[in-house]
Write a structure and sequence with these properties.
Helix content is about 65%, strand content about 0%. The chain contains seven helices and no strands. It has helices at about 5-35, 35-40, 50-75, 85-100, 105-125, 140-175, 180-185. The two termini are about 20 Å apart.
């Protein structure tokens, strides 16, 4: 977006953002509906995480966006914490988010995911359009919201689809007496990593 953007243009950007969020979530839910719950709960299929852990991670970063919107609504956008200065903050945030959801059921995590997304859209709609590109903020909403609200989810969904495709191919090979590697078929992206680093 150019430096000078009208309130009408920002309002249109907001509606487009909400549409992208809606499409992204619908795609995620369609994918989850096609995977048995036991596989969504199986540990270490996504690096050190399960699919349920990934969903809790996504919900946590959307919750962070909700908190940012609350600060902006109170005129305190200058108090928003950005994580680019120290990657260790991202690691700690991710670890806390996943640990906090470990005792939750899959249904509980899915309800949290839906609840946080609802709040995110609700708060986004309430913000004055001009606040989406306020020069007083270190980074405007238009620059950071996509990563928190839909491109992040899409990135994880691509990885999950790749994992599930590999898992099914490995299962078919084993059922047919093939010699495909079970580890390669079931390993999630970044098997040796601690989990996704960034929101």
């Amino acid at each position: 977006m150019s430096r000078r953007v009208s309130a009408a243009q920002l309002g249109a950007w907001r509606e487009g953002a909400i549409q992208r969020m809606t499409r992204s979530r619908e795609a995620t839910l369609r994918f989850l509906a096609g995977v048995p719950e036991r596989e969504l709960l199986r540990s270490r299929t996504q690096g050190r995480w399960s699919v349920k852990d990934v969903l809790a991670h996504v919900a946590a970063w959307e919750g962070e966006a909700v908190r940012r919107f609350a600060l902006i609504a109170r005129g305190r956008g200058d108090r928003i914490l950005f994580y680019d200065a120290d990657p260790r903050l991202v690691d700690r945030f991710n670890a806390r988010a996943v640990a906090a959801a470990r005792s939750m059921t899959l249904g509980g995590v899915l309800r949290r995911l839906a609840r946080v997304r609802h709040r995110l859209i609700e708060r986004l709609r309430r913000l004055p359009a001009v606040s989406l590109r306020d020069p007083a903020h270190r980074y405007p909403v238009t620059s950071w919201l996509p990563e928190y609200a839909w491109t992040h989810e899409r990135q994880h969904l691509r990885r999950l689809r790749g994992w599930w495709k590999g898992w099914r191919a490995g299962k078919a090979a084993r059922s047919g007496g093939g010699r495909g590697s079970h580890r390669a078929a079931t390993a999630g992206p970044g098997e040796s990593n601690r989990g996704p680093r960034k929101p």
